[in-house]
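Hey there, shall we discuss this one?
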Amino acid sequence: MIARQCAALGLLIASGLILGAMQQDKAERPSGRVYEPPKQPLDSRIDPTKVTEYDPGPLPQQLILPMPPQFRIAQRPEQVPMSRGHWDTANQAIANGLAFLRSAQNVQGGWLTDAQAAPTDEPDKPSPIAVAMTALAAKAIVQARPEAINDAALNRAIRFMRLAQNKDGSFEGGALTNYVTSVVVTALAGADEQDFHDEIHDATQWLVTNQWDQSEGLTANQDWFGGAGYGGQGRPDVSNTQTMLDALYEAGMSPDEPAVQRALAFISRAQNLKATNKAEWSGNDGGFVYTPANGGESFASEAAGEGRYGEIIPTGQQRSLRSYGSMTYAGFKSMLYAGLSPDDVRVRAAFDWVRKHWTFDENPGLGQQGLYYYYHTMSRALRVAQQNVITDVDDVAHNWREELIDAIASRQRDDGSWKNAADRWLEGEPVMATVYALLALEEALKPTLHAE
Protein backbone atom coordinates (compact mmCIF):
# COMPACT_ATOMS: atom_id res chain seq x y z
CA MET A 1 0.00 0.00 0.00
CA ILE A 2 1.42 3.37 -1.03
CA ALA A 3 0.13 5.99 1.38
CA ARG A 4 1.89 8.78 3.22
CA GLN A 5 2.20 8.09 6.91
CA CYS A 6 1.12 10.75 9.40
CA ALA A 7 2.92 9.41 12.44
CA ALA A 8 5.90 10.31 14.57
CA LEU A 9 8.35 8.10 16.36
CA GLY A 10 10.21 9.54 19.32
CA LEU A 11 12.98 7.91 21.26
CA LEU A 12 13.67 9.14 24.78
CA ILE A 13 17.09 8.76 26.28
CA ALA A 14 17.78 8.22 29.97
CA SER A 15 20.98 6.85 31.44
CA GLY A 16 22.12 6.35 27.87
CA LEU A 17 19.33 3.90 27.01
CA ILE A 18 16.31 4.13 24.76
CA LEU A 19 13.34 3.89 27.10
CA GLY A 20 10.30 4.43 24.93
CA ALA A 21 8.52 6.47 22.35
CA MET A 22 7.47 10.06 22.61
CA GLN A 23 4.53 9.32 20.34
CA GLN A 24 3.84 5.84 19.05
CA ASP A 25 1.20 5.55 16.35
CA LYS A 26 0.64 1.84 15.98
CA ALA A 27 -0.46 -0.57 13.31
CA GLU A 28 -1.41 -4.22 13.42
CA ARG A 29 1.18 -6.96 13.50
CA PRO A 30 2.41 -7.96 10.01
CA SER A 31 0.49 -10.78 8.37
CA GLY A 32 1.62 -14.36 7.98
CA ARG A 33 2.36 -13.69 4.31
CA VAL A 34 5.79 -12.37 5.27
CA TYR A 35 7.27 -15.80 5.99
CA GLU A 36 4.96 -18.00 3.92
CA PRO A 37 6.73 -20.88 2.11
CA PRO A 38 7.69 -20.48 -1.56
CA LYS A 39 5.65 -22.12 -4.31
CA GLN A 40 8.49 -22.52 -6.82
CA PRO A 41 11.99 -23.99 -6.81
CA LEU A 42 15.10 -22.00 -5.91
CA ASP A 43 16.13 -19.49 -8.55
CA SER A 44 19.08 -20.72 -10.64
CA ARG A 45 20.99 -17.49 -9.88
CA ILE A 46 21.35 -18.61 -6.26
CA ASP A 47 24.01 -21.19 -5.36
CA PRO A 48 22.41 -23.29 -2.61
CA THR A 49 25.83 -24.56 -1.47
CA LYS A 50 26.76 -21.03 -0.35
CA VAL A 51 23.49 -20.13 1.37
CA THR A 52 23.26 -20.66 5.12
CA GLU A 53 19.98 -21.45 6.86
CA TYR A 54 18.68 -20.52 10.31
CA ASP A 55 15.54 -18.98 11.78
CA PRO A 56 14.80 -15.35 10.85
CA GLY A 57 14.43 -12.66 13.49
CA PRO A 58 11.00 -12.18 15.09
CA LEU A 59 8.37 -10.04 13.41
CA PRO A 60 7.20 -7.02 15.41
CA GLN A 61 4.36 -7.79 17.81
CA GLN A 62 2.96 -4.37 16.93
CA LEU A 63 4.28 -1.85 14.46
CA ILE A 64 5.35 1.67 15.44
CA LEU A 65 4.81 3.86 12.41
CA PRO A 66 7.90 5.94 11.57
CA MET A 67 7.75 9.69 11.35
CA PRO A 68 6.68 10.87 7.88
CA PRO A 69 9.38 11.86 5.37
CA GLN A 70 10.33 15.53 5.15
CA PHE A 71 11.44 16.88 1.79
CA ARG A 72 12.49 20.45 2.64
CA ILE A 73 14.92 22.07 5.03
CA ALA A 74 13.61 24.47 7.67
CA GLN A 75 13.01 28.05 6.67
CA ARG A 76 13.63 29.52 10.14
CA PRO A 77 16.40 28.74 12.64
CA GLU A 78 13.96 28.23 15.51
CA GLN A 79 12.58 25.17 13.70
CA VAL A 80 15.81 23.26 14.30
CA PRO A 81 17.57 22.54 17.63
CA MET A 82 20.94 24.20 17.03
CA SER A 83 22.70 27.49 17.62
CA ARG A 84 22.23 30.40 15.22
CA GLY A 85 25.92 30.15 14.37
CA HIS A 86 25.55 26.54 13.25
CA TRP A 87 22.41 27.41 11.30
CA ASP A 88 24.30 30.11 9.41
CA THR A 89 27.34 27.89 8.84
CA ALA A 90 25.24 25.04 7.45
CA ASN A 91 23.24 27.27 5.13
CA GLN A 92 26.39 28.91 3.78
CA ALA A 93 28.05 25.53 3.22
CA ILE A 94 24.95 24.32 1.38
CA ALA A 95 24.84 27.44 -0.79
CA ASN A 96 28.50 27.01 -1.73
CA GLY A 97 28.05 23.30 -2.38
CA LEU A 98 25.02 23.87 -4.60
CA ALA A 99 26.96 26.47 -6.57
CA PHE A 100 29.64 23.85 -7.20
CA LEU A 101 27.02 21.33 -8.33
CA ARG A 102 25.48 23.81 -10.74
CA SER A 103 28.90 24.41 -12.27
CA ALA A 104 29.43 20.64 -12.68
CA GLN A 105 26.10 19.90 -14.41
CA ASN A 106 26.44 19.14 -18.12
CA VAL A 107 24.26 20.61 -20.84
CA GLN A 108 22.02 17.51 -20.95
CA GLY A 109 21.22 17.99 -17.28
CA GLY A 110 23.30 15.20 -15.75
CA TRP A 111 26.26 14.82 -13.44
CA LEU A 112 29.22 12.43 -13.79
CA THR A 113 28.12 11.56 -17.30
CA ASP A 114 31.62 10.33 -18.16
CA ALA A 115 31.91 8.05 -15.13
CA GLN A 116 30.73 5.03 -17.10
CA ALA A 117 29.93 4.48 -20.74
CA ALA A 118 26.29 4.15 -21.74
CA PRO A 119 25.20 0.70 -22.96
CA THR A 120 26.50 0.21 -26.51
CA ASP A 121 23.17 -1.12 -27.77
CA GLU A 122 21.32 1.91 -26.39
CA PRO A 123 23.67 4.86 -26.94
CA ASP A 124 21.00 7.46 -26.13
CA LYS A 125 20.52 6.17 -22.60
CA PRO A 126 22.59 7.83 -19.87
CA SER A 127 25.03 5.74 -17.87
CA PRO A 128 23.88 4.21 -14.57
CA ILE A 129 26.29 6.21 -12.41
CA ALA A 130 25.26 9.43 -14.15
CA VAL A 131 21.57 8.69 -13.49
CA ALA A 132 22.23 7.96 -9.81
CA MET A 133 24.36 11.06 -9.31
CA THR A 134 21.83 13.20 -11.14
CA ALA A 135 19.05 11.92 -8.88
CA LEU A 136 21.03 12.61 -5.71
CA ALA A 137 22.10 16.06 -6.93
CA ALA A 138 18.54 16.96 -7.91
CA LYS A 139 17.34 15.90 -4.47
CA ALA A 140 19.99 18.05 -2.79
CA ILE A 141 18.94 21.06 -4.88
CA VAL A 142 15.20 20.82 -4.34
CA GLN A 143 15.42 20.09 -0.60
CA ALA A 144 17.40 23.27 -0.03
CA ARG A 145 15.64 25.45 -2.59
CA PRO A 146 11.94 24.62 -3.06
CA GLU A 147 11.70 27.27 -5.75
CA ALA A 148 14.18 25.21 -7.78
CA ILE A 149 11.26 23.04 -8.93
CA ASN A 150 10.74 25.67 -11.62
CA ASP A 151 14.43 26.00 -12.51
CA ALA A 152 15.53 25.05 -16.01
CA ALA A 153 18.55 23.23 -14.54
CA LEU A 154 16.38 20.98 -12.40
CA ASN A 155 14.00 20.34 -15.27
CA ARG A 156 16.94 19.23 -17.39
CA ALA A 157 18.02 16.88 -14.61
CA ILE A 158 14.55 15.34 -14.40
CA ARG A 159 14.41 14.85 -18.16
CA PHE A 160 17.84 13.24 -17.96
CA MET A 161 16.59 10.77 -15.33
CA ARG A 162 13.38 10.01 -17.20
CA LEU A 163 15.37 8.90 -20.24
CA ALA A 164 16.65 6.01 -18.16
CA GLN A 165 13.30 4.50 -17.11
CA ASN A 166 12.51 1.08 -18.54
CA LYS A 167 9.12 -0.35 -19.44
CA ASP A 168 9.18 -2.48 -16.27
CA GLY A 169 9.42 0.65 -14.10
CA SER A 170 13.10 0.35 -13.18
CA PHE A 171 15.70 2.93 -14.05
CA GLU A 172 18.45 1.48 -16.19
CA GLY A 173 21.46 0.55 -14.17
CA GLY A 174 22.76 -2.83 -15.29
CA ALA A 175 24.33 -4.21 -12.14
CA LEU A 176 23.32 -0.99 -10.34
CA THR A 177 19.61 -1.10 -11.19
CA ASN A 178 18.37 -1.47 -7.59
CA TYR A 179 20.53 1.41 -6.40
CA VAL A 180 19.74 3.67 -9.37
CA THR A 181 16.00 3.01 -9.20
CA SER A 182 15.92 3.63 -5.45
CA VAL A 183 17.69 6.98 -5.55
CA VAL A 184 15.60 8.17 -8.50
CA VAL A 185 12.43 7.40 -6.50
CA THR A 186 13.69 9.50 -3.58
CA ALA A 187 14.51 12.37 -5.95
CA LEU A 188 11.13 12.32 -7.69
CA ALA A 189 9.23 11.96 -4.41
CA GLY A 190 10.98 15.08 -3.13
CA ALA A 191 10.48 17.06 -6.32
CA ASP A 192 6.71 16.65 -6.56
CA GLU A 193 4.99 13.36 -5.88
CA GLN A 194 1.86 14.24 -7.83
CA ASP A 195 3.74 15.17 -10.99
CA PHE A 196 5.69 11.93 -10.94
CA HIS A 197 3.08 9.58 -9.48
CA ASP A 198 3.27 7.06 -12.33
CA GLU A 199 7.06 6.94 -12.38
CA ILE A 200 7.23 6.51 -8.60
CA HIS A 201 4.51 3.86 -8.55
CA ASP A 202 6.08 1.78 -11.33
CA ALA A 203 9.58 2.08 -9.86
CA THR A 204 8.50 1.04 -6.35
CA GLN A 205 6.63 -1.92 -7.78
CA TRP A 206 9.83 -2.94 -9.56
CA LEU A 207 11.82 -2.62 -6.33
CA VAL A 208 9.39 -4.92 -4.52
CA THR A 209 9.46 -7.43 -7.37
CA ASN A 210 13.27 -7.33 -7.48
CA GLN A 211 13.57 -8.16 -3.76
CA TRP A 212 14.92 -11.64 -3.01
CA ASP A 213 12.03 -13.59 -1.47
CA GLN A 214 9.57 -16.44 -2.07
CA SER A 215 9.19 -15.49 -5.73
CA GLU A 216 12.79 -16.68 -6.22
CA GLY A 217 12.08 -19.89 -4.30
CA LEU A 218 13.70 -18.67 -1.07
CA THR A 219 12.45 -19.70 2.33
CA ALA A 220 12.52 -17.33 5.29
CA ASN A 221 15.31 -19.45 6.79
CA GLN A 222 17.78 -18.69 3.98
CA ASP A 223 20.26 -15.85 4.34
CA TRP A 224 19.34 -14.09 1.06
CA PHE A 225 15.69 -13.75 2.08
CA GLY A 226 14.28 -10.21 2.08
CA GLY A 227 17.38 -8.44 0.82
CA ALA A 228 18.13 -6.38 -2.28
CA GLY A 229 21.37 -6.43 -4.20
CA TYR A 230 23.08 -5.14 -7.30
CA GLY A 231 20.91 -5.78 -10.34
CA GLY A 232 19.18 -9.11 -10.71
CA GLN A 233 22.29 -11.22 -10.24
CA GLY A 234 24.14 -9.98 -7.18
CA ARG A 235 23.60 -11.40 -3.72
CA PRO A 236 21.78 -8.96 -1.43
CA ASP A 237 23.53 -6.59 0.99
CA VAL A 238 22.62 -4.06 3.68
CA SER A 239 23.64 -1.05 1.57
CA ASN A 240 21.30 -1.90 -1.30
CA THR A 241 18.55 -3.00 1.05
CA GLN A 242 18.61 0.22 3.08
CA THR A 243 18.61 2.25 -0.15
CA MET A 244 15.54 0.32 -1.30
CA LEU A 245 13.88 1.00 2.06
CA ASP A 246 14.74 4.72 1.73
CA ALA A 247 12.80 4.72 -1.54
CA LEU A 248 9.80 2.80 -0.17
CA TYR A 249 9.71 5.06 2.91
CA GLU A 250 9.83 8.29 0.90
CA ALA A 251 7.24 6.93 -1.55
CA GLY A 252 4.93 6.42 1.42
CA MET A 253 4.84 2.65 1.74
CA SER A 254 3.49 1.44 5.08
CA PRO A 255 5.81 -0.68 7.24
CA ASP A 256 3.14 -3.38 7.47
CA GLU A 257 3.69 -4.24 3.81
CA PRO A 258 5.28 -7.71 3.40
CA ALA A 259 8.15 -6.26 1.36
CA VAL A 260 9.21 -4.03 4.25
CA GLN A 261 8.95 -6.83 6.81
CA ARG A 262 10.92 -9.21 4.58
CA ALA A 263 13.61 -6.54 4.36
CA LEU A 264 13.59 -6.40 8.16
CA ALA A 265 14.31 -10.14 8.25
CA PHE A 266 17.38 -9.57 6.08
CA ILE A 267 18.54 -6.52 8.03
CA SER A 268 18.21 -8.40 11.34
CA ARG A 269 20.47 -11.13 10.00
CA ALA A 270 23.22 -8.56 9.42
CA GLN A 271 23.33 -7.53 13.08
CA ASN A 272 25.92 -8.81 15.52
CA LEU A 273 23.33 -9.80 18.11
CA LYS A 274 23.04 -13.39 19.27
CA ALA A 275 19.58 -12.90 20.79
CA THR A 276 18.02 -12.51 17.33
CA ASN A 277 20.73 -13.61 14.88
CA LYS A 278 21.67 -17.28 14.92
CA ALA A 279 24.38 -17.04 12.25
CA GLU A 280 27.55 -18.85 13.30
CA TRP A 281 29.63 -15.70 12.74
CA SER A 282 27.40 -13.45 14.85
CA GLY A 283 28.96 -11.57 17.73
CA ASN A 284 27.11 -9.52 20.31
CA ASP A 285 28.12 -5.86 19.97
CA GLY A 286 24.84 -4.77 18.31
CA GLY A 287 26.47 -3.34 15.18
CA PHE A 288 25.97 -4.38 11.57
CA VAL A 289 28.05 -6.01 8.83
CA TYR A 290 27.82 -5.57 5.07
CA THR A 291 25.76 -8.67 4.32
CA PRO A 292 24.66 -11.92 5.95
CA ALA A 293 24.16 -13.55 2.52
CA ASN A 294 26.28 -16.56 1.52
CA GLY A 295 27.60 -16.85 5.05
CA GLY A 296 28.31 -13.14 5.58
CA GLU A 297 30.81 -10.43 4.62
CA SER A 298 32.19 -7.30 6.26
CA PHE A 299 34.44 -4.58 4.86
CA ALA A 300 35.51 -3.86 8.43
CA SER A 301 36.85 -7.42 8.77
CA GLU A 302 38.74 -6.86 5.53
CA ALA A 303 40.15 -3.55 6.82
CA ALA A 304 41.25 -5.27 10.04
CA GLY A 305 43.21 -7.88 8.06
CA GLU A 306 40.79 -10.69 8.86
CA GLY A 307 39.47 -11.07 5.32
CA ARG A 308 36.20 -9.80 3.90
CA TYR A 309 34.57 -13.11 4.79
CA GLY A 310 36.28 -13.42 8.16
CA GLU A 311 38.35 -16.20 6.67
CA ILE A 312 41.71 -15.06 8.15
CA ILE A 313 40.92 -15.63 11.81
CA PRO A 314 43.74 -16.88 14.08
CA THR A 315 43.74 -20.60 14.68
CA GLY A 316 41.54 -21.57 17.57
CA GLN A 317 39.25 -18.55 17.30
CA GLN A 318 35.69 -18.79 16.02
CA ARG A 319 34.99 -17.04 12.73
CA SER A 320 33.39 -13.63 13.25
CA LEU A 321 32.56 -10.52 11.23
CA ARG A 322 33.22 -6.97 12.40
CA SER A 323 30.55 -4.28 12.68
CA TYR A 324 31.17 -0.82 11.26
CA GLY A 325 29.66 2.65 11.30
CA SER A 326 27.91 3.19 7.99
CA MET A 327 26.24 -0.23 8.00
CA THR A 328 25.20 0.13 11.64
CA TYR A 329 23.41 3.41 10.95
CA ALA A 330 21.90 1.83 7.83
CA GLY A 331 20.60 -1.08 9.91
CA PHE A 332 19.37 1.16 12.74
CA LYS A 333 17.47 3.38 10.30
CA SER A 334 16.00 0.42 8.44
CA MET A 335 14.62 -1.11 11.63
CA LEU A 336 12.80 2.14 12.41
CA TYR A 337 11.41 2.29 8.86
CA ALA A 338 10.13 -1.27 9.41
CA GLY A 339 8.23 -0.27 12.53
CA LEU A 340 10.30 -1.83 15.30
CA SER A 341 9.62 -0.46 18.76
CA PRO A 342 12.36 1.54 20.52
CA ASP A 343 12.18 -1.18 23.19
CA ASP A 344 13.00 -3.96 20.73
CA VAL A 345 16.28 -5.60 21.66
CA ARG A 346 17.62 -5.02 18.13
CA VAL A 347 16.99 -1.27 18.26
CA ARG A 348 18.46 -0.98 21.74
CA ALA A 349 21.59 -2.91 20.77
CA ALA A 350 22.17 -0.85 17.61
CA PHE A 351 21.78 2.40 19.52
CA ASP A 352 24.21 1.20 22.19
CA TRP A 353 26.75 0.50 19.42
CA VAL A 354 26.26 4.07 18.19
CA ARG A 355 26.89 5.44 21.69
CA LYS A 356 30.09 3.39 22.06
CA HIS A 357 31.49 4.47 18.68
CA TRP A 358 30.40 8.10 18.55
CA THR A 359 32.62 10.04 16.14
CA PHE A 360 32.66 12.35 13.13
CA ASP A 361 36.38 11.85 12.53
CA GLU A 362 36.00 8.58 10.65
CA ASN A 363 33.64 5.86 9.52
CA PRO A 364 34.17 3.57 12.56
CA GLY A 365 35.74 0.33 11.46
CA LEU A 366 36.77 1.68 8.04
CA GLY A 367 38.68 4.83 8.87
CA GLN A 368 38.28 7.43 6.10
CA GLN A 369 36.75 5.01 3.62
CA GLY A 370 33.13 5.87 2.86
CA LEU A 371 33.22 8.87 5.22
CA TYR A 372 30.62 10.96 3.36
CA TYR A 373 28.31 7.99 2.89
CA TYR A 374 28.64 7.53 6.65
CA TYR A 375 27.69 11.16 7.31
CA HIS A 376 24.64 10.87 5.08
CA THR A 377 23.42 7.56 6.55
CA MET A 378 24.10 8.74 10.10
CA SER A 379 22.12 11.95 9.66
CA ARG A 380 19.11 10.16 8.16
CA ALA A 381 19.13 7.55 10.93
CA LEU A 382 19.32 10.04 13.79
CA ARG A 383 16.65 12.23 12.29
CA VAL A 384 14.14 9.41 11.78
CA ALA A 385 14.90 8.32 15.36
CA GLN A 386 14.10 11.89 16.48
CA GLN A 387 17.29 12.17 18.47
CA ASN A 388 18.38 15.75 19.17
CA VAL A 389 21.06 14.84 21.69
CA ILE A 390 23.05 11.62 21.92
CA THR A 391 24.58 10.69 25.27
CA ASP A 392 27.63 8.51 24.70
CA VAL A 393 28.93 5.76 27.00
CA ASP A 394 31.06 8.29 28.88
CA ASP A 395 27.90 10.25 29.72
CA VAL A 396 28.85 13.10 27.37
CA ALA A 397 25.90 14.73 25.61
CA HIS A 398 26.27 15.52 21.90
CA ASN A 399 24.10 17.75 19.73
CA TRP A 400 24.60 15.66 16.62
CA ARG A 401 23.43 18.37 14.25
CA GLU A 402 25.99 20.88 15.49
CA GLU A 403 28.82 18.34 15.49
CA LEU A 404 27.89 17.12 12.01
CA ILE A 405 27.85 20.68 10.68
CA ASP A 406 31.26 21.39 12.24
CA ALA A 407 32.75 18.23 10.74
CA ILE A 408 31.38 18.72 7.24
CA ALA A 409 31.90 22.49 7.00
CA SER A 410 35.54 22.12 8.08
CA ARG A 411 36.16 19.73 5.16
CA GLN A 412 34.62 21.92 2.44
CA ARG A 413 37.04 23.04 -0.26
CA ASP A 414 37.44 26.56 -1.61
CA ASP A 415 35.33 25.83 -4.70
CA GLY A 416 32.41 24.65 -2.55
CA SER A 417 32.98 20.95 -3.12
CA TRP A 418 34.05 18.08 -0.90
CA LYS A 419 36.43 15.25 -1.75
CA ASN A 420 37.60 12.20 0.16
CA ALA A 421 41.31 11.44 -0.06
CA ALA A 422 40.42 7.81 0.64
CA ASP A 423 39.13 7.26 -2.89
CA ARG A 424 36.82 4.29 -2.44
CA TRP A 425 33.22 4.00 -3.63
CA LEU A 426 33.79 7.08 -5.83
CA GLU A 427 34.21 9.49 -2.91
CA GLY A 428 37.42 10.74 -4.50
CA GLU A 429 35.14 12.24 -7.15
CA PRO A 430 34.04 15.69 -5.89
CA VAL A 431 30.48 15.39 -7.22
CA MET A 432 29.88 12.19 -5.26
CA ALA A 433 31.36 13.47 -1.99
CA THR A 434 29.62 16.84 -2.41
CA VAL A 435 26.20 15.27 -2.92
CA TYR A 436 26.55 13.14 0.22
CA ALA A 437 27.80 16.13 2.24
CA LEU A 438 24.90 18.31 1.10
CA LEU A 439 22.29 15.66 1.80
CA ALA A 440 23.72 15.12 5.28
CA LEU A 441 23.64 18.84 6.05
CA GLU A 442 20.09 19.06 4.78
CA GLU A 443 18.96 16.24 7.09
CA ALA A 444 20.38 18.28 9.96
CA LEU A 445 18.40 21.34 8.86
CA LYS A 446 15.02 19.69 8.39
CA PRO A 447 12.42 20.93 10.88
CA THR A 448 11.85 18.82 13.97
CA LEU A 449 8.83 18.20 16.15
CA HIS A 450 10.91 19.02 19.22
CA ALA A 451 11.83 22.50 17.98
CA GLU A 452 8.52 23.64 16.49
Q: What stands out?
A: The longest helix spans residues 84-104. Confidence is low (pLDDT under 50) at residues 1-23, 117-123.
